[in-house]
Write a structure and sequence with these properties.
- The chain is globular.
- An 8-stranded mixed beta sheet has the order 3-2-1-4-13-14-15-16, with no helix packed on it. Strands 19-18-22-21-24-23-25-26 form an 8-stranded mixed beta sheet, with helices on both faces.
- The chain folds into 2 domains: about 290 residues, Metal-dependent hydrolases (TIM Barrel), CATH 3.20.20; about 190 residues, no CATH class.
- The chain is of the alpha/beta class and about 550 residues long.
- It has 16 helices and 29 strands.
- Helices cover about 25% and strands about 25% of the residues.
């Protein structure tokens, strides 16, 4: 019988009270909470929950993600496995569930609602209505993941409505994804049964959705950062706000997680209990999670800190087991064999050449994707670029570079467009992480370097690479071309080296690989590139690149 006691100042968020107490813990649960009059230098509070995250975007398998997250006081995630589902279907979801069960951490996976995300790209699998219905019958599937097909909701697409109905029948929430929806269209989307949104870019948009009953997630990931725009919502809407990362690269996960959002909100003067509601309580209540909330008979899930502003995480407990202490994870690494779906042959530079057969043409006007640092949304731009050696590659002086997407599931011609915002002056970078279908995406300054970066990824059956100035670096991602099965801290270090290499090639972005991975995400406007061509997210149809 595992029985112990632990004392400190208990932070009761539900009752908005802080008092000295001793926790009596028996067999992983809190058997008694004994108030006392002692003075303590530490505080006990419920652990943090990331209310929406794609674990795959950390490039870590779930067991390794958990090892890093608990150091920062995270005890649970609401996890959308649609990245691996787009590659491998239900088999991929099964992999995430099985691996997550091997460690003491509360992964709460959902049934992926939009696989493939759109009909305008090639994914590796399809998750059908029947698949969704079967998944939602399982106790380890907690919700229907983000309904990105908001046009389908608004136009009452039968398949979309059937997936939502399956979740409602199972009594499980439906997550949303509706960037920019306002007014009557937002009201109609929410009325269909959608309960959350993590895609609000402005506080006005968030308030619009709040008035129709939606829960708003404040997101701060490696690419999309909406905290500064949305944190004031905590003052007046604390009961319907949650924190999430959405997509977190491994180097950023080493630095911090939900604890960073908590500290920032407190530094902005938001009331402690309102902040902790968003970080600890609201996800548990909304998704009906099993997290303990420091009540008698609850699982002994909590964190210990010595300061409620600085939030130094001294220890993290899950089910009465200490899983982290003083910045060190106590969860051991678990070996895992890769699973994958990767069919792609090497390409030549000539395969992505755009010839100009008229020798009198010295320059060409092209459409340009405008990438923005810290945002998933892009601008629709244009540029006039020079013709050199009978073809067009781009123009580093204007920061207009060639963007290429290669189908990794079957043989097909490459898709080519132009992009501004990466800042590369030399070389190229490539990745098999390309939301949401995860074909190979690359950006670079010459056709030769782009081809080399792509071929480096193909040689590893998935990964991220940087090529240029005589340098070739790669981080293999053998698990579905999305994740490494190495130690999480090792992956973070290798990713940091690649991030540094991309910046040495000239990139001005804070997170070049994360931004690159979203340039094929068609459900976020305005202009993106899928494996099938340049896509206009406003008209929701393909467009010509010239």
């Amino acid at each position: 019988m595992n029985t112990f006691q632990l004392s400190g100042n208990l932070v009761d968020i539900l009752q908005q009270e802080i008092y000295p107490a001793t926790l009596h813990i028996k067999n992983g649960r809190i058997s008694n909470i004994e108030r006392n009059n002692n003075k303590y230098n530490t505080y006990l509070l419920p652990g943090f929950t990331d209310a929406h995250v794609h674990v795959e975007s950390s490039m870590l398998i779930p067991s390794e993600f958990a090892r890093l997250a608990v150091v920062h006081g995270t005890i649970a995630t609401v996890s959308d496995p649609h990245e691996i589902a787009n590659v491998m279907g239900v088999k991929g979801v099964e992999y995430m569930l099985e691996n997550g069960r091997k460690v003491p951490f509360r992964f709460n996976f959902g049934a992926p609602s939009c696989v493939p995300a759109t009909a305008f790209e090639t994914a590796g699998a399809t998750v059908t209505v029947a698949d969704i219905e079967a998944l939602l019958q399982r106790n380890d599937i907690r919700y229907l993941t983000e309904m990105m097909n908001f046009p389908g909701v608004l136009h009452k697409d039968p398949e979309v409505l059937a997936k939502i109905a399956a979740a409602q029948k199972a009594g499980k929430p439906v997550d949303g994804h509706a960037p920019g929806l306002r007014g009557e269209t937002a009201a109609a989307y929410i009325a269909a049964g959608i309960s959350t949104d993590h895609e609000c870019f402005t506080i006005e948009e968030a308030r619009d959705k709040l008035q129709y009953g939606m829960h708003i997630l404040i997101r701060e990931g490696s690419a999309a950062k909406n905290f500064e725009a949305l944190y004031p919502l905590l003052h007046d809407h604390a009961d319907r706000i949650m924190f999430c990362s959405d997509d977190k690269h491994p180097d950023n996960l080493v630095e911090g997680h939900i604890n960073l959002l908590v500290k920032r909100a407190l530094a902005h003067g938001v009331d402690l209990f309102k902040v902790l509601k968003a970080a600890c309580i609201n996800p548990v209540l909304h998704y009906k999670l099993d997290n303990g909330l420091l009540r008698v008979n609850d699982p002994a899930d909590f964190i210990i800190t010595d300061d409620l502003q600085k939030l130094n995480i001294l220890a993290t407990y899950i089910n009465g087991v200490k899983v982290a202490e003083n910045g060190q994870t106590l969860i051991p690494s678990i070996s895992s064999s890769p699973v994958n779906n990767f069919i792609a042959d090497p390409i030549a530079a000539g395969d992505i050449r755009i010839p100009v057969n008229d020798s009198n043409v010295k320059e060409m006007k092209v459409k340009v994707i405008g990438a923005m640092d810290g945002q998933l949304i892009t601008n629709t731009l244009s540029a006039v670029i020079p013709v050199t050696n009978g073809g067009i590659t781009g123009d580093t002086q204007q920061d207009v570079l060639k963007l290429v997407v290669i189908n990794r599931y079957r043989k097909a011609p490459p898709a080519i467009a132009f992009i501004q915002g990466f800042g590369l002056q030399h070389g190229a970078i490539a990745s098999s992480v390309a939301h949401d279908s995860h074909n190979i995406i690359a950006v670079g300054t010459t056709d030769e370097d782009i081809a080399a970066a792509i071929n480096t990824v193909i040689a590893e059956q998935g990964g991220i690479s940087a090529v240029g100035n005589g340098m070739v670096q790669v981080l293999p991602l053998p698990v579905a071309g999305l994740m490494s099965n190495l130690d999480g801290y090792t992956v973070a270090a290798r990713y940091s080296a690649l991030d540094k290499a991309s910046k040495e090639l000239g990139s001005t972005l804070a997170s070049p690989f994360m931004t690159l991975s979203f340039m094929a995400l068609l459900v976020i406007p305005h202009l993106k590139l899928s494996d099938r061509g340049l896509f206009d997210g406003d008209s929701f149809q393909f467009t010509t690149p010239y």
